[in-house]
Amino acid sequence: MTDHPVSTEPPTAGGVLVACDGSDGSLWALDRAMTEAQAHGLPLYVLAVVNPSPSGYPPGMAELVQESVERLEASMADGLRRAVSTVQQARPHRYTGPLGLHVVLGNVIEVLLACTPGRHTLVVGTRGNGGFARLLLGSVSTAAVHHAACPVLVVPAPPA
User: Fold this and answer.
1) Residue ranges for the chain with pLDDT beneath 50
2) Is residue 1 part of a domain?
3) What's the structural domain count of the chain?
4) CA nearest 126: which of 154, 96, 86, 103?
5) CA torsion, ordered 151, 17, 82, 85, to nearest 10 deg
6) 84 belongs to a structural domain
7) Is residue 58 part of a domain?
8) Of 23, 96, 97, 131, which is least surrounded by CB within 10 A?
9) How would you class 140 by CB atoms within 10 Å of its CB: exposed for 0-12, middle for 13-18, buried for 19 or more?
């Protein structure tokens, strides 16, 4: 799986889309997304979104940091390949359907929501914020549940 190509373009419509940032929650979501895609005979699109400058660059700075952004994209692509490989190895039945890996620059929530029209399902993980804050959903899963243009499957942590 380490040689799987990674696109820097958002995935095309259709299939199952899963958000993966390498966290435990996103790995559980990736595992469930593989199950969903396999069960429905659909392609699986694994999306990592990187926001290299959440507040934007001052004039003239974008050109100066381009090399750093390219290294960041390459690092995320490597992480995405490793995440897929790790989840595949832990599964009793490997996912064998069409698979697209995507690393896209931008605001995580905006990019993810823009990729949801025409999807069968969006799969996201959840994370606890301590107590019952936001019903134990993180900001990305909360935004997805409320604003995605397709059904959303939120995958909780496995029982301890």
Assistant:
1) 1-2, 128-136
2) no
3) 1
4) 154
5) 80
6) yes
7) yes
8) 131
9) buried
Structure tokens at 159: 């029982």
Mode of pairing for the β-strands spanning 16-19 and 152-155: unpaired
Q: Contact, 150 vs 121, CB < 8 A?
A: yes
Full-model pTM: 0.86
Query: How many Cβ atoms sit within 10 Å of the Cβ of residue 153?
Result: 16
Contact yes or no for 82/55 (Cβ under 8 A): no
Q: Rounded to whole angstroms, how far apart are CA atoms 37 and 121?
A: 9
Q: Which domain holds residue 76?
A: 6-155
Instruction: Report which residue type is found at 107.
Output: N
Question: Which of 133, 132, 152, 149 is CA-nearest to residue 141?
Answer: 152
Q: Is 128 left (phi over 0), alpha (psi -120 to 50) or beta?
A: beta
Read out DSSP for 63-81?
A: HHTHHHHHHHHHHHHHHHH
In a domain? residue 63: yes
